[in-house]
Design brief:
This protein is of the alpha/beta class and 98 residues long.
Length: 98
């Protein structure tokens, strides 16, 4: 392997290690509802977990995965999900607040 190929392989291995570390630590990407819907539109047959939460004010919470990351949003009104989405209704969705 020449120097250029070795450098590229090292860079790719480092990127993979970072991605795996992010997944292992449970990173969740918080985003606005519109951006969440954009992610769903980029996914063929997205899997969406949704739950209704809140004590006084009801909040609709959603998660999905895309390219190895978990995306989360919440909304005061239900989101329009793609027709081909597989939807799982959960009792509760808990995500770390940062």
């Amino acid at each position: 392997m020449n120097g250029a190929n070795a450098g590229a392989a090292t860079t790719a291995a480092a990127a993979a290690a970072i991605a795996n570390a992010t997944l292992a630590s449970g990173a969740v990407v918080h985003m606005e509802p519109y951006d969440f819907q954009v992610i769903l539109g980029m996914t063929e047959r997205p899997l969406v977990v949704c739950a209704l939460g809140g004590w006084i004010w009801k909040t609709y919470k959603y998660t999905t995965s895309y390219r190895g990351l978990i995306f989360y949003t919440s909304s005061k009104t239900p989101l329009e999900l793609p027709k081909d989405a597989e939807v799982i209704t959960a009792n509760r969705i808990s995500v770390p607040e940062m």
